[in-house]
Write a structure and sequence with these properties.
Helices cover about 45% and strands about 15% of the residues. Strands 3-2-4-1-5 form a five-stranded parallel β-sheet, sandwiched between helices. A five-stranded mixed β-sheet has the order 6-7-10-8-9, with helices on both faces. It is built from twelve helices and ten strands. With about 300 residues, it is α/β, with parallel strands linked by helices. Helix 10 packs antiparallel against helix 11 and helix 11 packs across helix 12.
């Protein structure tokens, strides 16, 4: 369906886009994360009015614009060319152009390079506005079934294990639901490190959000690990949602299960120390339990 059909819809009382309602400046425009019908009417207005559309990958944005019959010049702006192109974009904004900033999918500035452009535009007293829309972070939080009154988005966990452990340790006591982006191929490893560092909290793995094979799998971290070990890594974009510290309470069976998992990759002493810190149980008691579990094998 072309954009013109959206504008002609009398049932929605949609008025044609007006440059008077949208002064020159930088407009941060959220785009769909999968389902193209999640584009907003205001987003289409701005994309049609824009003098230039700044995007991560012009090929990805071209597909979106083509779907809605919008023909506007685009310019790639990413981590590789940002330092070179940012001054040119700012100069165009100072000259009175209306520029739309989009990401490949979702809300710009969330794990993409738009922050520096917005920061410098604000410093230059350039008009900056944002058009809300699709966000995989908020959608994953909503469907996870975990507390949503306080949440913390931590982006991608570090790829190297030691750096990842340090990051998890720093986030362990944050009194909020935690959200992470992760690649499907590293999902099981990331879940295991979260289990090791935070205890067996309630969690959820959301993937392919708004798409045909949308899925949200919920359970404790060890249950999610067991599932993905058995069924292999999923395909698609992944958001991991982990419950707040209060979600880590364990009964005796949970402690035995967690201890058994830790003993597969840690010494008895290490496993006992980790679990004692996670649960508040005496390290000596957990150490004795670990020895008992090993004797039974």
């Amino acid at each position: 369906m072309g954009y013109s059909l959206w504008k002609m819809s009398e049932k929605l009382s949609v008025k044609p886009a007006s440059s008077q309602l949208h002064p020159p400046g930088l407009y941060i425009v959220a785009t769909p994360i999968g389902n193209l019908r999640d584009i907003t009417m205001r987003a289409l207005d701005i994309l049609e009015l824009a003098d230039l559309i700044v995007c991560e990958d012009t090929r990805v944005t071209a597909k979106l614009l083509s779907h809605f019959g919008i023909k506007k010049p685009t310019l790639s702006y990413n981590d590789h060319n940002g330092e070179e192109r940012r001054p040119k974009i700012l100069e165009a904004l100072k000259d009175g152009q209306l520029i739309a900033l989009v990401s490949d999918a979702g809300t710009p500035l969330v794990s993409d390079p738009g922050y520096k452009l917005v920061k410098e535009a604000v410093a230059e007293n350039i008009h900056v506005s944002a058009l809300p829309g699709a966000s995989s972070v908020l959608m994953a939080l909503c469907v996870s079934g975990l507390p949503s009154d306080r949440f913390f988005f931590a982006g991608f966990l570090p790829a190297k294990q030691e750096a990842c452990r340090k990051e998890i340790a720093a986030l362990k006591t944050v009194p909020a639901t935690l959200l992470f982006f992760e690649s499907a191929r590293r999902l099981t490893e990331a879940l295991a490190l979260l289990l090791e560092g935070m205890g067996n909290r309630q969690a959820a793995v959301a993937r392919e959000l708004t798409k045909l094979y949308e899925e949200c799998r919920r359970g404790t971290l060890d249950e999610l690990i067991a599932h993905y070990v058995k069924h292999s890594a999923p395909k698609g974009e992944v958001v991991i949602v982990v419950g707040p510290p209060g979600e880590a309470a364990m009964d005796a069976q949970d402690i035995k299960k967690q201890l058994g998992l830790l003993l597969t990759s840690h010494s008895v002493k290490e496993a006992a120390s980790i679990l004692a810190e996670q649960t508040g149980q005496p390290r000596k008691e957990i150490y004795t339990l670990a020895l008992t579990l090993l004797d039974k094998k």
